[in-house]
Amino acid sequence: MKGLQAIHLQTGYPGSGTPLLSEALSFDARQGTLWVLAGHNGAGKSTLLNTLCGLLPANQGKVLWNGLEVDGMDPMSRSAVFALVFTGRPAASSFTGFELTGTALFRAQQLTEKEKAIRISKALETAGAAHLSHVYFGKMSDGEKQKVLLARALAQDTPVLLLDEPSAFLDFAAKRELASLLRRLATEHQKLVMVSTHDTEVFLPVSDELLFLNRQGIALQISEPARNPEATRLFQAAG
């Protein structure tokens, strides 16, 4: 099986012994698709993303990438598959946007300095952050920082892109721009994009699949959620 597979997956906080899902989760996610993870605060969206990329162990079940267990990969191998844009901010106040984006190229030892610079510049441009190339990270607004962190993930050049609340610090126009960009990355660059978000009105119209984690600890999968009335009923029930 090509792509990302969750097989009877059960997630939870390390050491708690308490699962976040009352039913084990299974799904197949292929490159070229955009997935939205939605649900109320504390439902386990961030924990699920961390488990999918191997940062957290599964309580039970397993995650496979192209048939290989993610949990059995070493960190360098996982970094060749997954690029992450999570809610934390790196301690990089003295880094320019260009320098911070370049930290993603730790695997690219075969590239010349010129080739690295081209990749960094392209990633910044794609993320709408080219104008931040020479701006110090500590001087950027929250929205600008988010764009540079997305550029860093793009420079990593992986088949899977995982984003946790990437639109949290953006205005509505910037949120729509980000959703459109992620759609293009899935379609034109054949990336598997998975987004945890509360901004479902922005991301659902461009998504292929919805994973909704409800208050009962059940993950419900809905295909083409923008055209599926079941998705609307779920969000209405969730309040």
Provide the low-confidence segments as ranges.
none
Structural class determined from secondary elements: alpha/beta
What topology, given as strand order, has the largest sheet?
6-7-8-3-9-10
Shape: globular
Q: Describe the biggest sheet?
A: 6 strands, mixed
Question: How many helices does DSSP assign?
Answer: 8
Beta-strand fraction estimate: 15-25%
- Oligomeric state, counting identical vs distinct chains: single chain
Ends: how far apart? Answer: 37 Å
Q: Can you give the helix content as a percent range?
A: 25-40%
Helix and strand string, N-terminal first?
EEEHEEHEHHHEHEHEEH
- Please give the radius of gyration in angstroms: 18 Å
Beta strands, count: 10
Mean pLDDT: 90
